[in-house]
């Protein structure tokens, strides 16, 4: 029951339920007891799998009845005299027990021929059997574990004869001959390696040169591309500028033609502007002869007013006359009303009335026509009008008859 | 227990600085594990062994498959200089193979390598720049470098680094700027490159001119190049080294695409040296010179001058190279064009 093994027990009794039962030392399976001690400097890391020996064949298990004390079984090769004595005693005891057991049997076997049973008293040899066996406590302590001593060198016994030999120079091999192939290989390999390296360097240099040439080509192409791009850009800009210029030029041209056309049209339009303007002005009376004007504005109105007055006087006279005639006629009518022949005098009075009325109308319209006649006279300036007025009146009367309709409208 | 060692003396052909390599397929995974070990010596030995193994392209492929790149990324920032140096060397050898380059891009190694640009050890920096140069040759690599914002850093480094590293930086820049040039222009790369054009080393001059060429392929780059650099480039046309002449001619070719570039080139009297370059039969710069003269011929003054020299172009028509013949034909047609 090595106390060091305690922690391992718990794993092995893992299946046991948690019972409130405590062991002083828990039951566990014991590994096999090794025959030899382990070497002191053994690899602790190398743990072999634990071998469990059969319980039945384990020397540490107590055999027999457990209600009597047991003596440790003898293990050592050289038992001490004490132990020898003990063994002897144990043997004796065993024998004694066996004998008593024989005697206990009901029948002893018949003596063999030639022998006879004799009763023997074994008082002398008897020992007191007491419950308690005299026992003496002895301690035994083995020495500290000693290492297994190393096996001594096995030096076999010397047999045979001693013989010596000596290799002289030149007997094994001829150095110069033998060394040739080795040298060849060595030098060959070295030279080959060197050649390889040189070739590799050359290849590298060629690769670099190739790369460089390619880079140059690429750069040249790139430069060409960029140059063409630049060119293209310049051309395009130039084109744009020229187009712009051309557009501007065209526009200017257009404007110029329009201007010319407008100018021509305006000239043409205004060509007879001045004559027509002058005509209009002249017609509207801006250019006037001051004397004529003067005559017209002052003289003629005075003349007309005088004529009007004269005519009015005439008309007055006529109306007076008419009224006189009328009163006369009326009086006569009244006078003749008493007579049936009165209607004959009325008929000529009635005829004279319409003719007077027509005369009156003609007289009134004459006065109104004067200003119109003045206008017509502007084109034909007639300096002396007063004397010929009477004639013109008569002339105009006939005209008036034709234009009456228009004017009454 | 028996040990593998038979005797206390190591066999004569084992290198104690290298980790022993397991057999066959197990070699790389085992080295991978050793790289992660906390012990410095193990890491260094594993790195040395890996460095030898990685020269074989199959091992590169397997290494990427096993997942070396993440370990190497962490090791880049190790405090020990040997570790860093070996790691960068391994990455450089891996970058020489296409598989390696792809793997490096995918695992984002470029940003991790940015930290190493300021490393105190020269070799580490040199290896880092070599890696960048290799990566820049691939288009995705160049794009990756641009995205990681490395261009301003690299341009800045041009001022301070050693000569051979400057060459590497110039190579990287030329490959990256082919893709996009705006970042570099923003950081004033042109001024720095103008200085480099006058450097004593011919290689640096030619590479600087090459970078200017790549800048000139972009329109904004062209205007900047036109402003400042054309006179210097024209002076380089008469340089003794043919490489320098070739690169300078190429740079001029792109710079003269814009009209103002053409005027400044004419002003700097670029035509006579260019004609000389065209006349030489074996010059590398022939093609570029013909192209540049074509650009200049689009200006009226240029056309006048070149009308006298059309026989040089006629000679070029006999060149074995197809591209040169074509270029000569185009040049002649441009010269003889009447508006």
Summarize the structure.
Chain A is mainly α and 409 residues long.
What does this 3D model show about the protein?
- The complex is a heterodimer of chains A (409) and B (339).
- Chain A is mostly helical and 409 residues long.
- Chain A has a domain at 291-335.
- Helices cover 60% and strands 0% of the residues of chain A.
- Chain A is built from 7 helices and no strands.
- In chain A, helix 5 packs antiparallel against helix 6 (342-379).
- The longest helix of chain A has 97 residues, at 175-271.
- The radius of gyration of chain A is 92 Å and the shape is elongated.
- In chain A, 1% of the residues are buried.
- Mean pLDDT of chain A is 76; it is low at 1-15, 360-369, 371-388 and 404-409.
- With 339 residues, chain B is mostly helical.
- Helix content of chain B is 71%, strand content 0%.
- In chain B, helix 15 packs parallel to helix 18 and helix 22 (310-316) packs antiparallel against helix 23.
- The longest helix of chain B is centred in the N-terminal third of the chain and has 15 residues, at 81-95.
- The mean pLDDT of chain B is 84.
- The A-B interface holds A 212, 216-217, 219-224, 226-227, 230-231, 234 and B 213, 217, 246, 250, 253-254, 257-259, 284, 287-288, 291, 294-295, 298, 323, 327, 330.
- Chain B: It comes from Haliaeetus albicilla (White-tailed sea-eagle).
């Amino acid at each position: 029951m090595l106390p060091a093994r305690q922690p391992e027990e718990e794993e092995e009794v893992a299946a046991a339920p948690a019972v409130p039962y405590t062991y002083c030392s828990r039951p566990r399976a014991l590994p096999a007891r090794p025959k030899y001690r382990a070497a002191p400097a053994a690899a602790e890391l190398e743990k072999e799998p634990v071998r469990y020996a059969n319980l039945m064949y384990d020397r540490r298990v107590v055999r027999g009845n457990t209600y009597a004390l047991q003596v440790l079984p003898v293990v050592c090769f050289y038992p001490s005299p004490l132990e020898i004595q003990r063994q002897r005693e144990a043997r004796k005891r065993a024998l004694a027990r066996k004998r008593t057991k024989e005697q206990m049997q009901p029948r002893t076997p018949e003596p063999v021929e030639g022998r006879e049973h004799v009763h023997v008293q074994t008082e002398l040899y008897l020992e007191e059997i007491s419950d308690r066996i005299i026992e003496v406590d002895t301690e035994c302590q083995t020495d500290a574990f000693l290492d297994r001593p190393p096996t001594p060198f096995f030096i076999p016994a010397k047999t045979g004869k001693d013989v010596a030999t000596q290799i002289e120079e030149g007997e094994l091999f001829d150095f110069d001959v033998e060394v040739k192939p080795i040298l060849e290989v060595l030098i060959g390999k070295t030279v080959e390696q060197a050649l390889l390296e040189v070739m590799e360097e050359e290849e590298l240099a060629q690769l670099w040169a190739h790369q460089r040439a390619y880079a140059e080509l690429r750069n040249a192409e790139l430069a060409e591309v960029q140059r063409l791009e630049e060119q293209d850009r310049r051309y395009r800009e130039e084109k744009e500028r020229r187009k712009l210029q051309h557009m501007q030029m065209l526009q200017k041209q257009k404007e110029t033609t329009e201007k010319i056309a407008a100018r021509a049209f305006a000239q043409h339009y205004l060509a007879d502007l001045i004559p027509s303007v002058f005509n209009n002005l002249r017609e509207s009376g801006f250019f006037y002869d001051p004397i004529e004007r003067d005559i017209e504005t002052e003289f003629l109105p005075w003349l007309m007013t005088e004529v009007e007055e004269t005519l009015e006087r005439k008309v007055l006279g006529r109306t007076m006359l008419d009224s006189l005639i009328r009163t006369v006629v009326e009086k006569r009518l009244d006078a003749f009303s008493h007579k049936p022949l009165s209607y004959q005098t009325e008929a000529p009075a009635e005829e004279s009335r319409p003719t007077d009325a027509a005369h009156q109308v003609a007289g009134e319209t004459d006065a109104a026509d004067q200003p119109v006649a003045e206008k017509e006279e502007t084109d034909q300036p007639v300096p002396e009008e007063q004397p010929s007025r009477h004639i013109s009146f008569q002339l105009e009367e006939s005209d008036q008859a034709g234009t009456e309709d228009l004017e009454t409208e | 227990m028996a040990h593998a060692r038979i005797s206390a003396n190591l066999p004569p052909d084992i290198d104690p600085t290298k980790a022993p390599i397991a057999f066959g397929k197990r070699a790389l995974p085992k080295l991978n594990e050793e790289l992660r070990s906390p012990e410095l010596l193990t890491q260094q030995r594993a790195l040395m062994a890996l460095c030898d193994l990685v020269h074989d392209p199959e091992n590169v492929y397997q290494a990427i498959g096993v997942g070396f790149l993440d370990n190497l990324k962490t090791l880049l920032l190790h405090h020990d200089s040997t570790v860093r140096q070996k790691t960068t060397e391994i990455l450089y050898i891996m970058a020489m193979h296409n598989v390696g380059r792809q793997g490096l891009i995918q695992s984002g190694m470029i940003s991790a390598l940015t930290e190493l640009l300021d490393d105190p050890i020269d070799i580490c920096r040199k290896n880092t720049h070599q890696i960048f140069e290799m990566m820049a040759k691939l288009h995705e690599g160049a794009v990756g470098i641009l995205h990681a914002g490395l261009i301003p850093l690299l341009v800045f480094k041009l001022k301070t680094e050693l000569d051979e590293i400057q060459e590497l930086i110039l190579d990287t820049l030329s490959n990256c700027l082919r893709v996009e040039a705006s970042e570099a222009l923003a950081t004033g790369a042109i001024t720095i490159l103008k200085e480099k054009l006058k450097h004593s080393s011919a290689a640096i001059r030619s590479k600087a001119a090459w970078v200017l060429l790549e800048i000139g392929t972009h329109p904004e780059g062209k205007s900047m190049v036109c402003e400042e650099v054309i006179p210097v480039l024209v002076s380089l046309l008469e340089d003794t080294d043919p490489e320098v002449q070739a690169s300078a001619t190429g740079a001029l070719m792109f710079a003269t695409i814009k009209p103002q570039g053409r005027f400044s080139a004419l002003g700097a009297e670029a035509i006579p040296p260019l004609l000389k370059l065209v006349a030489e039969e074996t010059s590398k710069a022939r093609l570029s010179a013909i192209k540049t003269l074509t650009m200049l011929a689009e200006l009226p003054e240029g056309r006048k001058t070149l009308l006298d020299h059309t026989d040089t172009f006629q000679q070029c028509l006999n060149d074995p190279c197809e591209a040169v013949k074509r270029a000569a034909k185009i040049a002649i047609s441009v010269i003889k064009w009447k508006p």
